[in-house]
Specification:
Layout (H helix, E strand, L loop, with lengths): L1 E6 L6 E6 L18 H5 L5 H5 L2 H8 L4 H7 L4 H7 L2 H12 L5 H9 L6 H7 L9 E10 L10 E12 L4 E7 L3 H4 L6 H7 L6 E8 L2 E7 L7 E8 L8 E3 L7
Helix pairs in contact: 3-5, 6-8
GO biological process, one term: SCF-dependent proteasomal ubiquitin-dependent protein catabolic process
Protein name: F-box domain-containing protein
InterPro entries: F-box-like_dom_sf (IPR036047), F-box_dom (IPR001810), Hrt3/FBXO9_C (IPR045464)
Length: 253
């Protein structure tokens, strides 16, 4: 048994109180297990691929996947979900997506201030030019029709689509068609693939330059040397439905 000495202030007399053991402390943590490390936890009911594939090798494999592949891999299991959120993977994706418009110091500034140091949040939230799909612009105009017996002032609303498919090398594929995307998607391939396959001349290839959230495009028609079509596109979000909006226009020279 130990003794606890209590001393009063201002030089008062001290009191000696006996201190006995506290047996209720022995009940703490009886039914609780010590936290296991990740490698120890995998030795239980984990699958064979989880026990044989270390995190370093899994990280090297996931680094070869695009952002959509990382999203699919993160749904496999908890281990893959944790490794798929590694900052090095998303930093490489941000450098690939924004490296054409921002240098390294600007990237570090952008990821620190608006996104709290999260490369994944920057890649998902910051508007970027996407190479895994086709941008579609729907355009309409009014055209005067032919007079008939029943209709004197006939008008028609004409609808057509402008399709843009951008490539990472600074080129883009352009086509104007009244057909929906499902019917023209196969013709909007990479310029190298189109040259090998002998694609139809209705698809044009041009160059683009991105300055911030604005994308400037320029192309020349295949059968003309003097006419140049220019357009200015604005990136608004990362959603596939509202990614771009056509704001300006085309000029000829």
């Amino acid at each position: 048994m130990t003794t606890l000495v209590l001393a009063h202030e201002a030089g008062g007399p001290s009191r000696h109180l006996p201190v006995t053991g506290r047996p209720w402390l022995n009940l703490y943590g009886v039914r609780l297990r010590a936290p296991e490390t990740h490698h120890v936890a995998l030795q239980g009911d984990a699958a064979l691929i989880q026990r044989l594939l270390p995190d370093e090798l899994l990280l090297a494999i996931l680094s070869k996947l695009p952002a959509s592949g990382l999203g699919v891999a993160s749904c496999v299991c908890r281990q893959w979900h944790r490794v798929a959120r590694d900052p090095s993977l998303w930093q490489a994706l941000c450098q690939e997506a924004f490296g054409r418009t921002l240098d390294r110091s600007a990237l570090l500034t952008q990821v620190r201030d608006p996104h709290g140091g999260s490369w994944r949040a920057m890649y998902l939230d910051r508007p970027r030019l996407r190479y895994d799909g086709v941008y579609c612009s729907r355009n309409t105009y009014i055209k005067q029709g032919i007079r008939e017996w029943a209709v004197q002032n006939a008008v028609h609303m004409v609808c057509y689509f402008r399709y843009y498919r951008f490539c990472a090398d600074g080129t883009f594929v352009y086509r104007t068609s009244p057909e929906p995307l499902t019917r023209v998607l196969r013709s909007l391939t990479h310029p190298d693939q189109r040259a090998k396959a002998g694609a139809a001349p209705v698809v044009y290839v041009g160059r683009y330059a991105q300055r911030g959230s604005t994308v400037h495009t320029s192309l020349r028609y295949n059968d003309s040397r003097a006419t140049e079509l220019r357009a200015r596109l604005t990136l608004r979000s990362t959603s596939p439905r509202w990614t771009t909006s056509s704001r300006g226009s085309a000029g000829a020279r």
